[in-house]
Amino acid sequence: MGRRFGYAPLALAALVLVAAHGGAGFASHAEETLPTRRFTSGQSNYYEFCGGCHGLDGASARREIPVLKDHVGRFLCTPGGREYLVRLPNVAFAPMDDETLAQTLNFIARDLGGASYPAGARAYTAAEVGRLRQAPLKATDLAALRVHILEAGEKTCSAR
What is the pTM of this model? Predict the structure, then answer.
């Protein structure tokens, strides 16, 4: 006839033993082996709202999604490029307040931008982000606009 209960009694017994010991040893082992890492607000928001498409390290896997890693800082070379980053529809409409979005953009430009971040570039402020996101881009060809902005910036930019 075979077993009627399978491994259920054994699993239940294991749970009872763990509960009886209060999980002693299990949590401390996890704490010893797993590194703890604290993220800035900008990092956390990037990972939650942007990293799924752009990649956690800024290197997107899909061709049609721009790579941010070691490139995105170049947008800060011109006023138009700086505005472009904030006015992108997915950025302008991000579910964040202006301060949080400014912190997120600063993480993206400075940290993910790496060597492409211009020497002497200034950080985004909440006031600047609040003003710019009121006029989101409506261009149908954002890729062409992106190329134009980057070409203009090549003439005036010196990365760090």
Answer: 0.72
